Amino acid sequence: MKINNIRNFAIIAHIDHGKSTLADRIMELTNTVSQRESQAQLLDDLAVEQAHGVTVKSRTVRNYYQADNGEEYEYNFIDTPGHVDFTYEVSKSLAASDGALLLVDATKGVQAQTVANFRLAKANNLVVIPVINKIDAQAAEVERAEQEILSLDAEFANGPILKISAKTGLNIHDVLEVIHTTIPAPTGSRQAPLKALVFDSQYDSFKGIIAYVRIINGQLKANEDLLLMANQQRVNANEVGIFTPQRVAAPNLVAGDVGYIITGLKDPKALRVGDTLTNYAQPTAAALPGYEPAKSVVFAGFYPKGDNFNDLQLAVEKLALNDTSFEYHQENSDALGAGFRCGFLGIFHLQIIRERLQNEYGLDVLTTAPNVTYNVHLKNQSEPIMINNPIRFPDFAAVDYVEEPLAQATITTQADLLGSVMKLADQHRGQLVDMANQGELIVLEYRIPFAEIAYDFFNQLKSVSHGYATLMTEFAEYDLADVVKIEVHVNYAKVDALSFVVHRDDVANVTQELVHKLKYVIPRKLYPMPVQAIVEGKVIARVDVPPLRKNAAVSGDKKSISKKQALLRRQSVNQRQAAQSDIELPQEVFNAILELEK
């Protein structure tokens, strides 16, 4: 295929605006998949994607399109997620694309991730084609959606805004035509030394690491010796090929192509997404700039249920390769044993990883309460220590002061929703920095602690704004914070895995709510067990978990004093012995911390 006839593009949209359905129609009209193979949301093949109705993992597929001008074009479509937690997956896909279709639901208009993903596309200097979907829906407001698209960028007025129905296939042919007439062909030389961008990866138990690549210059052949320039890792191209959407081996890949390489590498850390791949014998002069690795904003602990730590370790390593925005480090807990401290892009990302461990590897894990990273300055040290695990938070007597990470949050909302959005930001200790107009929308700049927005802030923002507000965050700096560590003791035994850090102003409400929630989720025993929330050595809140049966010693029955004293002594001995034994806690105990109103 001539390089002038290749088009690499992505579809960007808010969640549930019909992106996967449009991808299905494109594959059908280009005869990429047969009618027998065709199914709804074909590219969303993960169980969690089908269960939640969202795209989690980027996918790639090559289509061949016979255009009206008689030319045949190669369309390399790179799928993107729509949820805010997976913005990093979108950025990877856009880095390998030359253009993007901006899909907007005619019944909902421009929404949160519509604006966020549009900005990502413009930052990558991509040609953006606006498309309005679901125009045949009864609740469609096509003109309003068109005006909202024009308010995003005045340049959209210079070109057509396509109006389609991905469900019925209406005007999908116009989309296929505008792709080759508007999106530019790749630039690059097929005679130059090999230079390829590794924009994603996958782990196969038998074949090892499979790298997803976009060829910038040169050509790549099977069984060729290659070099990953970041780590100077030498690899052999055991197999190269394309996605249709299944993997299909090909003799070579040339400049402009998007495909895969089976490297045979078994070490998940040997390949880094964003790396430059080149020929080992004739390497390219300079590596591609790539892009920054994902920055985790939420951390939580994963611990195996039962004695299957090795299985969990293997599963976590494979998931980290398939999802490069997921990170992990091994840790140990006195209450739960060996496990992993994991980093996530958000709470929904955490939920997806947990479900993938269960669905793909058959592992049930205990998940501790999420938290962010703090800089803790000690009284006897000049350099601060970074704490992303509340278990390692120093004793309050040794702490001089603590700094927490602040987010530079950009919220775009409609004027009539301004009051509700600002009230929500104030409730989460947000500081207003700037306010500006963007057409009919208002852009708010806030500085908000990551600890306040990492949990459920985005869902609350969607709720108060009816889905029309956008949220984009980036790390700003560390700032002073009056935070304290809350320790939980069950039956006088400290459960370190239940520790978490909160702002001092929230301690009273949070601890009272916590102990009353734990009262109903901690497994009961034959005697009452106290649950205590301790802050800086003081018990702030306490409640007793009721026993499985009535306490014989204080049941109200008429017994002699000596019998009651004997029962109380035996009960006291049982409690002291139980306090030294292992406490088995179900996931509901940790969920109680997740559900706290902070």
From TrEMBL:
* Major location (coarse): membrane
The UniProt record lists the EC number as 3.6.5.n1
Which residue intervals define the domain Tr-type G in the entry?
Answer: 4-187
Which reactions appear under catalytic activity for this entry? GTP + H2O = GDP + phosphate + H(+)
What is the recorded membrane topology of this protein? Peripheral membrane protein
Keywords, A to Z, come to: Cell membrane, Elongation factor, GTP-binding, Hydrolase, Membrane, Nucleotide-binding, Protein biosynthesis
Record's subcellular location: Cell membrane
Which amino acid positions bind GTP, per UniProt? 16-21, 133-136
Which Pfam families does the UniProt entry name for this protein?
Answer: EFG_C (PF00679), GTP_EFTU (PF00009), GTP_EFTU_D2 (PF03144), LepA_C (PF06421)
CDD domains in UniProt: EF4_II (cd03699), LepA (cd01890), lepA_C (cd03709)
As one GO molecular function, the record gives: translation elongation factor activity
Homology family: Belongs to the TRAFAC class translation factor GTPase superfamily. Classic translation factor GTPase family. LepA subfamily.
Q: Which PANTHER family does the record associate with it?
A: TRANSLATION FACTOR GUF1 HOMOLOG, CHLOROPLASTIC (PTHR43512:SF4), TRANSLATION FACTOR GUF1-RELATED (PTHR43512)
Q: Summarize the protein's role.
A: Required for accurate and efficient protein synthesis under certain stress conditions. May act as a fidelity factor of the translation reaction, by catalyzing a one-codon backward translocation of tRNAs on improperly translocated ribosomes. Back-translocation proceeds from a post-translocation (POST) complex to a pre-translocation (PRE) complex, thus giving elongation factor G a second chance to translocate the tRNAs correctly. Binds to ribosomes in a GTP-dependent manner.
From the Swiss-Prot or TrEMBL record, give the protein name. Answer: Elongation factor 4
Instruction: Give the organism the record lists.
Output: Periweissella ghanensis
